[in-house]
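cache lookup: miss for this entity combination. No prior model stored, computing from scratch. Input as submitted by user K.M.:
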Amino acid sequence: MAAVRTADSRQQWEIIKKNFCIDGDFSQINDSGEDLQLVVRLVQQLGAGQLVLDLALDAIWLALRQSVVPKFWQHFVTFEAQTNGKEDDAGEGSVEVMSRVATAVSELYDSAGSFVPQINRCEMLCEQSGAKFEDCIPGGLMEHFKLHLRATLHSQMPSSFMHLLHKFYSAAFKVFYQAEVGSQVEESEEVTDEPVPCGGCGGATDACHCQAITNTFCQVNKQLYGLDLLERLAGDIISSLLLSVITDHVSTTCRDSYDQSCINQLEKWVENVVVGWLELVYCGSRGQLSSADAAIQTMVSNNLNQTYMTALYHTYTTTRIDQLFNIVIEYPESQPALEDIRECLDRTHLRDRLVESLRSAIQTRLLHPGVNTTDVLHAYISAIKALRVLDPKGVLLELVSEPVRQYLRGREDTVRYIVTSLTDESCSELSEELLVAAPLVLDDSHSDDDNMDNWETWTPDPVHAHNLKSKSQRTADIISMLVNIYGSKDVFITEYRTILADRILSQFSYDTEREIRYLEHLKVRFGETLALLHKCEVMVKDVADSKRINTSINSDENPHREKQKFPVSAMILSAQFWPSFKEERLQVPEEVTKELENYTEAFQDLKGNRTLNWKPHLGQVQLEIELKNRTLNLTVTPTQATIIYHFQERNRWSIDDLSTMTQVPKTVLRRKITYWQTQGVLQEVESDVFVLVEGEETGEEGQTAAAGLPLADIAPPAIEEDEAESVMASAQDQREEELQVLWSYIVGMLTNLDCLPLERIHAMLKMFVQGSVECSPQELRAFLDRKVRQHQLLLTNGLYKLPKN
Amino acid sequence: MIVLKRSWRKYSIDNLEQVMKVKIKSWTGVATWRWVANDDSCGICRMPFDGCCSDCRLPGDDCPLVWGQCSHCFHIHCIMKWLQSQQLHQQCPMCRQEWKFKE
């Protein structure tokens, strides 16, 4: 009985084993004759459901592990071995890769498919016997099977596989991309007779196998998708291909053109390419997305928005950030690009990087001695305007421009350039800016209480705005920003005063309309009350007054007019309100002195109790010089006029004699004479001796002089610089004069206290001379050292002392 | 030959000596004006005479000087203010003599 039962049960076991392929032989699964229902019932009777299921599944897993997966991988390992060495043979290689991958995948698909009936049986068994498999994973047994397949595949994956798969997908992508985008490009290309290689597969046009590639590709994708392997194996590759093509496309699109907004166009492009590619991969062909699974649809749109659009913005912004310096310089042409960046900056987190990169670009390209101050200033102005577009709150600007301001502060000619261009009509950028009638916003004006009326529209500062200056200052206008380089209005107005003085005393135009206009603008900008601007006002008024006085003195009623040899006019200045002049001496010719005296007398008659002090070296003289065969009409300075005047009496002067005659120092004289040399009137015959060149005897010197042209070969052309020379004392001289005020205090101190160290002197000066003259200890030391050199002071053991006399 | 040429040039230069004529067509000079006074600054406001008193903005005609018979002079605005503040005798702030404007 027991034997029968044993034999019986053995037979039953055989049946069960066969039906569930527990021995791992899956070949006869379909032709087993027994009715599956019976077998299942048998298992149930025996109460061995769980056992059988476990064994059956184990057999499947084993088969996967030992035959299916190794076989699949074998394809790639052998292929790798074959092609090792001829790596970059793209054309042929890709075809081979395509077919190899296709075979491998379809084989895998088939063999995995052969497990399906078995899986179904197991599932049925589960249902009927209540046996359980590892059910921690959602989904049925089929899902479970796929999970195992994936796990097994991954556990045995050869290292070269990803590389090959990448090749496979890039080949397919190239074909796709060519079809998608290339069609637009091709139209514009010139048609040539030579066989053009197909852009997609790299083969000759007539032997193009793009279509073949696409077909294989679709089949492979479908099979992989069926096995749930597509995303796992190729997901990364699919997206990395897209990302890299986005990067390439963005950088080619954005290269060197800033005058067009391209972000919308790029967005469209990305959407097109991404959707197209994902459709091809997941649905098999274009335009199928709408009919595909809802899961695929959401996946595509999620990917599109989250991954690829973000990637687009990121890439775009990074590319633009690298070009930002040029973009800034080219403002306002680059306005569209800047607007694009602004839009993208909100969607990325690249502000810090932008600041960093622009700062370093400015540092390396702008802030070095090779760049003119004007250029630095122009760049600064462009930066102000451009960064305002990016960030109307001015935080970016503040962060980026700090080094520029610091640098400009260090350049000596900055103020002069700013002021000149402010009042120069040809430099429209700033002078237009001046017309904006708004008071300056300076660092020290604390008006940043947020306006409570608009509290609803208030927005907080961006996070990286910490430790920045007040809000009002950041949004100040360009002139305010420029003035803020120095943080004080006085520096600018002082400079403006010097420039104004120079302009008046070099043009002698008596036309004050323009100056008055600028002065009014400046008054609006810098505040009515500024003492220095008041001085400028007086200066301009002096010009107008002089005009009136000249008219009245030169009018017919004037008794002196009869005897006058030539008309004299004057620019009569209120010395207290003008910057100090460079003191130069000049003895003008007798004739002129007399006329000037006449003028003074007339002035005294006109304005009782007032008289004039002439500054003989300043002015403008119109001369008519008659030479033997030519007449020159020139407008020159008094010094130049005096020089040539003396050549009337003698045609040969040495510098020494002329210097005694005119009381002009020899170095200055030499410089002034060059003017006459360039005019071809004087010539240096031996060192320091000059003779008059008449028109006639220039036979051997060339005809240029006779023709009235400058004798370039005789004269050193050094004159222009002289013309541009300022008549006002340099800033340094003016400062020296200011310090001179301190001298009387210092003398007083030292008379009373005998000897003092520098620090004491400085401290006491600070106490006595509050406000009027600011002076740093270093400056004071330099000043005192000069006094020591002039023997007006003694320095012993670090103590200053007055010399005993 | 060279000697000859040189002497010729010297000759010609001597000959041409009187040919060049410089004619001044007009002369525009630069001058600063000042009051003809025996002091630099006003004894009342201590501002320079060539500037203006502390109430004025423009110097010269708009803020003239006046002389007293004692020969002291002040900005007109300064001395007027001073005189208005004197109740009994109108005296020169410098020498305390009776203030009379110089004719």
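stored under new cache key. Confidence is low (pLDDT under 50) at residues 87-91, 184-195, 443-449, 697-723 of chain A.
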